[in-house]
Design brief:
This is Beta-lactamase family protein. By secondary structure, the protein is α+β, with helices and mostly antiparallel strands. It is built from 10 helices and 13 strands. The longest helix is centred in the middle third of the chain and has 15 residues.
């Protein structure tokens, strides 16, 4: 594992933290490279990273918690909660949003995004930004990874719970699991052990500023490898949701045509050497992340990096492969 990681994360460059757990217990936990280039601070295993789209796991489970409370159903149409949402003739459900099969335009692909990237928007203002865009396809007909769907899910969580998305996940997930180094990201707040993020454009530069109200429920969580292990263990032991609900979350869903999409609710459902792999990565200005769980082997591998130029994805997969019998 050391040799795999050292080949990509050099001592004087932005770095990464990797953790491997077997049967819920950490068996490998190491930091590489620098947490801050300007201050020449070495990376430490307990440091806090932006995890980008791994946030979608938390959003999906938050929706599942509301489903268990009887406040919504995965098959509910979104107009039940947002009556003026223009579904353009589609029967668009929460299930479609969770599985990236809604057909909604991904707002991160819109040219106008630059004009709002530094503004603090309410969830409603953000939904209004993209809701009138033409659909990419009819709901259920294709799988197309889509941040907009998870923005709408965050907004629905707020409407149904009467709490902000941040407060809901803090109270119902982070506090319950004692994830004390996990946060809804904030530029102004002092966050202990927060690492700096970098781009590489003919040399390293500090990451661009983006208002965290934009990634919102699709990508605004910060965490550590230790807290992410608590999260994975909670999912494995049904600490937050029932085994029946977890089965719905981790089902490999199908399109209207019957074709499998290799995605559940907030997780990709894939295989490594014919062994089931439940995984998701993340990318946000200055950061990349990847987490893989092998249910048969009971192995969890997570890598967090503080340069969006250096993804931990392949190394995380290579490490996971070491635990799968050929």
């Amino acid at each position: 594992m050391d040799s795999l990681i050292i080949s990509k994360f050099k001592a004087d460059n932005p770095g990464a933290v990797f953790l491997v757990a077997k049967e819920g217990k950490s068996i490998y936990r190491k930091a590489f490279g620098k947490a801050n280039l300007e201050m020449n601070i070495d990376m430490q295993p307990e440091f806090v990273f932006e995890i980008g789209s791994m946030t979608k796991q938390f959003t999906a489970v938050a929706i599942a918690l509301l489903e268990e409370q009887g406040k919504l159903n995965f098959q509910d149409e979104i107009v039940k909660f947002i009556p003026d949402y223009p579904t353009q003739g589609n029967k668009m459900t929460i299930h479609h949003l969770l599985t990236h099969t809604s057909g909604i335009k991904d707002f991160t692909k819109m040219k106008e995004l630059r004009s709002i990237s530094k503004k603090d928007l309410s969830p409603k203002e953000l939904v209004d930004f993209f809701k009138n865009e033409p659909m990419d396809f009819n709901s259920g007909e294709q799988f197309k990874y889509n941040n907009s769907g998870y923005i709408v899910l965050g907004y629905i969580i707020e409407i149904v719970s009467g709490q902000s998305y941040e407060d809901f996940i803090q109270k119902n997930i982070f506090d319950k699991l004692e994830m004390k180094a996990t946060y809804y990201a904030n530029h102004r707040k002092i966050i202990k052990n927060r690492v700096s993020g970098y781009h590489n454009k003919e040399g390293y530069i500090n990451n661009d500023y983006i208002s965290f109200t934009l990634p919102y429920a699709s990508g605004s969580i910060m965490s550590t490898v230790d807290d992410m292990l608590k999260w994975q263990n909670a999912m494995d032991t049904n600490k937050l949701v029932s085994s029946k609900t977890k089965q719905k979350i981790l089902t490999n869903y199908k399109l209207n045509s019957g074709e499998e999409i290799h995605y559940g609710y907030g997780w990709h459902i894939k295989e490594i050497n014919n062994s089931i792999s439940i995984e998701h990565g993340g990318s946000i200005f200055g950061f990349k992340s990847m987490g893989i769980y092998l249910p048969k082997e009971k192995v969890y591998v997570i890598g967090l990096s503080n340069c969006d130029c250096n993804s931990p994805t392949q190394i995380t997969k290579d490490i996971a492969t070491l635990f799968v019998e050929n």
